[in-house]
Amino acid sequence: MLVFEDEIGDVAGFTVILPAVSVGNAGQLCVDVLLENIQKEKMKTFQVLHPSLVPVVAPDTLLENTSVSTALQAYVIEDSKLVIFQIRSGILPGQGSAFIADFLKWFKESGCAELVVVGSMHAHERIDKQITGTDLRYLTSLERKVPDDFVKLEHREQDLETGGEPNIPGGGISSRILRQCHQQNLAATVLIKFCSEGDNSTDGMVLAQYLNLLVPVFNKSRPKIPKSWQHLFGHSAPVQMFW
Amino acid sequence: MASFFGEVLPPRSRILDDEDLDAMEEGFCEEFKVTSPPELEKNLLIVCEGSLPGVYTQLCFNNIQACGEILGKSSDKEVSYGKIFRGSNWTVVTCEHDLKQQEFLNLGNTILGLMDKGCQIICLTARHISEFRVEEMIEDESVVRCLSSKSFPATDAVKRLEIPNLLTGLSAAILSIAIVKGLPCFLLVNYVDLFTPDSMTLQGYQSIFKLKCLQESSLEKPNVSEALKSRQLFRPSNNLYI
């Protein structure tokens, strides 16, 4: 079960945003952008413990004090009726189902209105019609109004053969959580970006702006780059080696 | 890793895929038990992750034998994961076993089961200096950093770990549990060039004696070189640093 550091309060009717640990970590980078661009005074932070996540600790990137971030954090913004989760590590192999079950149990018991999962999908798994045009797609568990320029994720031949919902290769728990929400009649939307591994900071930015069209989170047209993205690929090479 | 010359390997992904069957580690221990569980520790619990902090803490107490062990079942065999040492007002748990990711939280919970309310927790660990990310490296400085839970008394004894560094492992698991449960916990990470215990690699841990809870305990701050020499704890004998 999800163990919160403190009582999270009444979040009935709130929209919950959850990143999927997926190719390029685009979903997690997207949440970094969201959190960097929301006013800190409006956010309440809670550390959350779940046995399915690899435990990590790090200095908090959003608060200037001595706070510590753990593997899973929840940020509650009451003004905007949002609960934003951030996963800073990954789900242990074989533990995805347990995490999904516990997360959706909390979601239902809290009376939250909608779940938005942000993630990514392998770019090399695109079908022909996905190679041109926008790299962004969406899926929903129930009928939901979306902006006109949003494109629904297309079925692939393999999905049609199995008669199931579109598969999301490299998407982590995205397709499984969507399937569970559909079965349990919970409102969920998955936002996906096609990407490959590398420097995925741009993917995170683009995904955050895409999410912002669906669920307004921040007001800026050009979001700030998160402080936690400094030295993403290590610090610069020592100049001594060129002497 | 390739098993033969010319084998084509799939690209490695930096994300953990929870559905990747190859990534599912076998033989990890789900349950741990403590042999001869001592009375609950009321003052100070020190957890040493890895060989370096384990050697250092043994220099801090003289000739005390382990009073218990932490055992886990791995492939139907009982394996020792850690040793427990007890003093008048402290308990030290050393864990030198190579742990799997699935074991961090379970072992962390077992270790925290040794403490009573009011006990302060100190976790000691080591990482290779190449894992430390910072704006500008000051080479002469021994790199020792800390993180602590809100309920641990505020201290400036050790510099706080800078963004964007992060830690995983047993110490991270214990600190995570402590944060969520409101327990006082202090984690010290010593960034070293080598994992061989010598006076240089162990020097970073001396900072813990700036903490009030260590000063009030019966543990003694060692002279690392002398203590290593007298216990012949340094290996190999051609090591220049004693």
Strand order of the largest sheet of chain B: 1-3-4-5-2-6-9-7
**Shape annotation of chain B:** globular
Structural class of chain B: alpha/beta
Q: Main interface pair? A: A-B, 49 and 49 residues
As laid out across the biggest beta sheet of chain A, the strand order is 1-3-6-7-2-8-10-9
User: Could you state the order of secondary-structure elements of chain A as H and E?
Assistant: EEHEEEEEHEHEHHEH
Residue-averaged pLDDT of chain B: 85
Strand runs of chain B, count: 9
Contiguous runs where pLDDT drops below 50 for at least 5 residues of chain B = none
How far from one another are the termini of chain B?
37 Å
Helix share, percent of chain B: 10-25%
Helix content of chain A: 10-25%
Radius of gyration of chain A: 18 Å
Task: Summarize the helix and strand pattern of chain B as letters.
Answer: EEHEEEHEEEHEHHH
> If you compute it from the alpha carbons, what radius of gyration of chain B comes out, rounded to the nearest whole angstrom?
19 Å
Number of strands of chain A: 10
Indicate the proportion of strand residues of chain B: 15-25%
Rounded to the nearest angstrom, the distance between the terminal CA atoms of chain A is 55 Å
pLDDT averaged residue by residue of chain A: 89
Tell me what portion of residues of chain A adopts beta-strand conformation: 15-25%
Largest sheet of chain B: 8 strands, mixed
